[in-house]
Amino acid sequence: MNAPTETMTISEMKTAFRELSGESLEECLQMVGDTANIEEGMKKLLHYAIIYANEVGQPDGQDISQDEQQVGEPQAKKQKKGHALEKRIEELEQSKRNEGEEELKSLKAKDFEIEIPEWEKCDSFDPEKSVLEKRGHPTWITLKESDSKPAVHVNEQFLLYDKNEALDDLVVRNPDTFVSGEIHNCSSAWLDVTKRKSDNMSETVQTWVESGIDALSFMRSFKGNYKGRPFDSDIPPKQFFPNAPSCKSYTSFIRGEINERLKNGSFRLWGKVGECSLPKVIMPLTVEPSKPRLCHDARFINLWTRDLPFSLDTLKDVHRLVEKDAHMICCDEKSGYDHIKLTRESEEYFGVQFGGWVFTYTTLPFGWKASPYIYQMLGMQVTSLFRDQGLNTIQYIDDRFMVFNSKTSSKMANSLTTIDSPIKMVSMVVTSLTTLGYTLALKKCQLIPSTLVRYLGFYVDSKKQAYLLPNDKKEKFMALRETILSYENVDVRTLQRFAGKCVSMSLVIPGAKLYTREINAAISIGLRNSRKIKMSGALLEEVKYWRFVDGWKGCAPWRPERHLQVSISTDASLYRYGVAIMSGKDKGEAFGDFWAKGDIRPIHQKEATAVLKALQSLKLDVQDHRVDLFVDNMAVVCAWENQGSRDVQLSAIMKEIFQMVCVLNVDLKMHYVESKSNLADYPSRKISYVDSMLSVATWGLVDSAFGPHTVDLMATDSNVMRDSEGVPLRHFTQYPSPQSAGVNVFAQELSKENFTGESIDLFGIDERLNDLKSREEESKQTKRRKSLEVRFKKFLLALPNTPTIMSVTPKDICRFLVWNDKFGKTQIHGMSCPHIGEFGIHRCGCAIRLAAGTVHGMVQSLSEILCRHGRGRSWDVGTCSGNPCMSPEVQSYQKSCKDEQAKSRILPKQAKPIFLGKLQKIATYIDREFSRHDLSLREKFVLVRDQAVFKLQFFAGDRASDISNILSQEVKKLPNSSGFAFNHTYGKTFRGDGKCNTFVIKRSEDKIICPVLGLEHYYKWTSDNGINISLGYLFRPVTEKGRVLDKKLEYSAIYERLKCYLITLGIDEGETPHSLRGGFAITMAVSGAVKGPGELMQHVGWSTESSAHYYSRSKSLTDASRVAGNIAKITSDREDIESFYKTHGDISSLSPAFD
Predict the structure, then answer these.
(1) Which range (182-196, 311-325, 826-840, 1052-1066) has the least confidence?
(2) For residues 390 and 256, what is the distance between their CA atoms, to the nearest angstrom?
(3) Bond into 1093 cis (ω within 30)
(4) Are strands 222-226 and 229-233 parallel, antiparallel or unpaired?
(5) Angle formed by the axes of helices 422-435 and 371-388, to 10°?
(6) What is the 3-state secondary structure (H, E, C) of 798-842?
(7) Residue 1097 — very low, low, confident or very high, per pLDDT cuts 50/70/90?
(8) I need a surface site. Which of 57, 72, 176, 606 has the fewest CB within 10 A?
(9) In the prediction, which pLDDT does 951 show?
(10) Measured between alpha carbons, how far is 579 from 590 in angstroms, rounded to an integer?
(11) Which residues are CB-neighbours of 893 under 8 A, at least 6 positions away?
(12) DSSP code per residue over 879-912
């Protein structure tokens, strides 16, 4: 190796490094962590290796090939050289040891010196002021004063409201004025808890409460290296570590956190650097940026901290506690570790420095290995107390989950309180925790008993008996996934984050790990070669597969714990599979079948397929059971336990098995069994003449002469006859099989048999019905009806006789309508009022009512509600029964409202029209803003979308809500790209029944307001920026983070955007999106672009002759094209049209005839 390292290639450097060290250069470089520039890192590492090799020398030994001079060299001279080399190595090692000892001695002799970086320094940072503001005692508030709402949004239907007033007066510590270490001021209360059990842990906990935590009691001796320095001592020596560079961007945040900790007492101020003694260990501060959160690196102290193993109850244990419709609550303790104090001597091992000031922790530090153990053990004393009270509860560090089941019992014999309601459960929990010194983080707690609670990041739903995925988690997951898909190459860390999020959803989406095999394989490759991973092939498809989460609203119900067990054994040979039932109602039965002709798959794949066929064959016997399945192939067992395999085909079979297990609600446990003990070995090798079949040619002759046949009465899946198209016939088998229509033809009632071969998929049918039901429940109309029903029920409860839905009378309906007048916005002016006939609310004292149309709509909704409760759709005057909304009294009330408002000269308010002049101003403004270079992609998307929406709505004359419903598939391009044709089939008035609206837009002479150019610009920009709008809704919303959602753009968003432009331009005159439609209609009528109302109705979609338009689509499209051509020409006459309207059509600006 005579060439300089600067001129060596990567291959030469790898070879040279291996010759020197015997190690891989790439692996060493990865261990060092210097992978920013791989080639430079290799040169640097090789350079150091050469220097060290020159210093140490070549190891003892001989080269195999020696030249003549070496062979002839005297042996004594060789030995002398060897001894000299060994002596030199010894001297170097001794020198290093001496240097290390001297360095340790110097550190022990004096305090270490602290260098403060410039970015930490700040003249305004004065922690001594915060010390003066230290809180001596906590402040107290009631739950009512705390404004403690559920930490997550929960619908009213989940909450328990009865007797909630009893919780309002509960007194708790105010979390906004948190004081650390309060449990130590409640030692007498803790004594009542710990003395219940005479065990070592209870005594230890009481000692912690009374005296604080002695950190040295958790220490052990340590000998080893840390960050390149040797250590050998019983306790941590004096040491200083500078703060992490990540703190540089969060200096103001760190100062605020330190000041708050000084005020709540979890930090102690020692003084300024150089003016005070220093603690023994000063740990580095770091910042976790996502929240952000101030942390510190306690790895140095943890080297001397002994291991403290303990177990935690996690989310997967929750479902064992929760019964159907049970009420639950959850508690979060404020700054958990800050509840427990350290002894004064222990504080010296937990120092920190920032901005030239030195502090120590006075409470358990986050990051110290013993902290979670101490906090959990102390908290478990309280958890044990709750469980003795008969409360089902679990604890995860500072998060508590409690559930009140129907079987929740009272406390044991020494009970002082009986928990007979969820409200009492809350009262007992809050009172106990407060008495013991805990401060609750009320904003994170959910103290109103509910059937839906968020705990450890997921929803727990006792009604659905399932875990649910919160929307915020889903959105973060979707954002990360789409970020990955937008790159051609992805770094390992990002893929690891994605894989972790996938696996974390296993409780919500069972089998999630099965769909991360390609991701994990790519991560493994990326870790080995230290390069980014190319997104292609199976990896790309697997990541794309996770897009199903976007629209997934299902759940995986918890499997009920039953003692129903079936044991099965399966086996496979090269030509056949076998199944043996070891326990259950068909115990001792064995069967099997042949593989398809030409199946040459490896044996482990056939073994896995045998498991799948066993479950498919015995699905009725194993449904809702625990199944112990014995297999003599270890690869299959491991693939099931690990949820996947390196073999892609085996993983695909495992996915099919998992889907079958989910459908059948089976708890499948696989076990390995030796082949000689496998009962399914014989049926997997059995051959019989019974399994023979007619040849294809012979069966063709039989079927043509006596057929066609629809059923094979005696067959197996492998030898069943097929019809003329090659499809297996419906058949009966001797034993269960996946495709069998029934077992044993002699046990079948053939006279009632359906020989058509039709099968009923009840699971698919029910799934379809549930999907339609969920869509209906999520519709705006259903939500409005439910809201009205809740309001109506509350009103009925307030009436003197407290009627119910089933006993409500017409008079009650009228009372409810009158009561709702307080929400009205229509003012009924008297004949002598100067404001009669005017819109808006005036200070004239005239009554304000609900509009007559609103009253009519409310009556219709109430009628639907009553009908759903069994009150029918009519009213019987004679018996006074039926639907009271249909009674003469209610109908008369509606007529009176309508007449009253007509006499008051109230007319439906028409939107002020927007003409082409204003549309041009808006379009010009959008074009100018779009050309700016300081806009984000999100802002540009909004601009390019808005201009397309406004132009299209004007020239289509359609409702804004209908424009938002347009699908990209409904838009077709006209010949020669002269425009677009729209076949609008869904909107406010288009809900099936053959109704549709076909209209055309063409290119306009004015390019600024041309709707065709607007749409083309919108589509091109979205395509160039990786947004595919070719399928689904044409116009879509975008989140604050810049994610374009696969949802329609709501009317409210169009309204807000239009008002924003009008106000910004100073031309707002109260217009709404409906104004575009009005301006279009007036423009058509005045300009003569249409021959008469018929053509306008056809273009806009107002025609009621739906069948004629549907079946004569070509003529409609031809007429629509001619009208669109006329529309495109009127843009040059826009000013004349607007002037004509203001002179002849708009009377709102005229002065009164009589002042």
Answers:
(1) 826-840
(2) 43
(3) no
(4) antiparallel
(5) 140
(6) HCCCCCCCCCCCHHHHHHHHHHHHHHCCEEECCCCCCCCCCCCCC
(7) low
(8) 72
(9) 87
(10) 6
(11) 814, 817, 855
(12) TTEE-GGGSHHHHHHHHHHHHHHHHTT--PPPPP
Place of tokens 């794309």: 544
Closest CA to 726 of 703, 753, 754, 745: 703
User: Per this entry, what is the length of the chain?
Assistant: 1155
| 1084 in Cβ contact with 1134 (< 8 Å) | no
902 phi and psi angles, rounded to 5 deg: -70, -40
Residue from 634, 205, 568, 598 nearest 379 by CA: 205
In the Cβ-directed half-sphere of 373, how many Cα atoms lie within 13 Å?
14
Q: How far apart are CA 352 and CA 349, in angstroms?
A: 10
* CA 1019 to chain CA centroid, nearest Å: 29
Which residue shows structure tokens 């609550």?
329
CB 833 within 8 A of CB 844: yes
Take residue 131 and report the two structure tokens written for it.
């010390």
3-state secondary structure of 51: helix
Return left, alpha or beta for 1016; rule: phi > 0 is left, psi -120 to 50 is alpha, else beta: alpha
CA torsion through residues 983, 985, 987, 988, sign: positive
Beta strands 458-461 and 267-272: pairing type? unpaired
Q: What is the DSSP letter of 581?
A: E
Q: Please choose, from the candidates 258, 277, 283, 264, the residue with its C-alpha nearest in 3D space to the C-alpha of residue 349.
A: 283
What single-letter amino acid sits at 307?
D
For the beta carbon of residue 626, count every other beta carbon within 10 angstroms: 17
DSSP 986-1030: BSSS-BSTT--EEEEEE--S-TTS-HHHHHHHHHHHHHHTT---S
Strand 626-631 relative to strand 667-672: parallel, antiparallel, unpaired? parallel
Q: 587 is written with which tokens?
A: 């115990």
How far apart are alpha carbons 28 and 33 in whole angstroms? Answer: 9
pLDDT 10s digits, 661-685 = 888 878 888 999 999 899 999 999 8
> Cα separation of 95 and 98, whole Å?
5
The one-letter amino acid code at 698 reads T
d(CA 564, CA 895): 65
What are the contacts of 225-233 at 24+ separation with CB within 8 A?
226/299, 226/300, 226/303, 229/100, 230/100, 231/303, 233/304
* Main-chain dihedrals φ then ψ at residue 467, nearest 5 degrees: -90, 140
What are the CB-based long-range contacts (under 8 Å, 24+) for 531-537? 532/489, 532/490, 532/491, 532/492, 533/489, 533/490, 533/491, 533/492, 533/495, 534/488, 534/489, 535/484, 535/485, 535/487, 535/488, 535/489, 535/490
Q: Determine the Cα–Cα distance for residues 280 and 1123; give it in Å rounded to an integer.
A: 88
Q: Are strands 267-272 and 357-361 parallel, antiparallel or unpaired?
A: antiparallel
Alpha-carbon distance 643 to 651, whole Å? 8
Tell me the C-alpha distance between 340 and 700, whole Å.
Answer: 85
- The H or E element that residue 1106 is part of is helix 1106-1111
Instruction: List all residues 6 or more positions away from 217 whose beta carbon is below 8 Å from its beta carbon.
Output: none
What tokens does 949 get? 């929406």
DSSP code of 666?
Answer: -
Query: How many whole angstroms from its chain centre is CA 425?
Result: 31
Using CA atoms, how far apart are residues 137 and 263, in angstroms rounded to an integer?
Answer: 11
Nearby residues of 937 by Cβ (< 8 Å), 6 or more positions away: 1025, 1042
Q: Which of 978, 1003, 1005, 1015 is nearest to 1134 (CA)?
A: 1005
Please report the pLDDT score of residue 206 as a whole number: 93
Has residue 347 got a pLDDT over 90? yes
The CA distance from 353 to 240, in Å, is 9
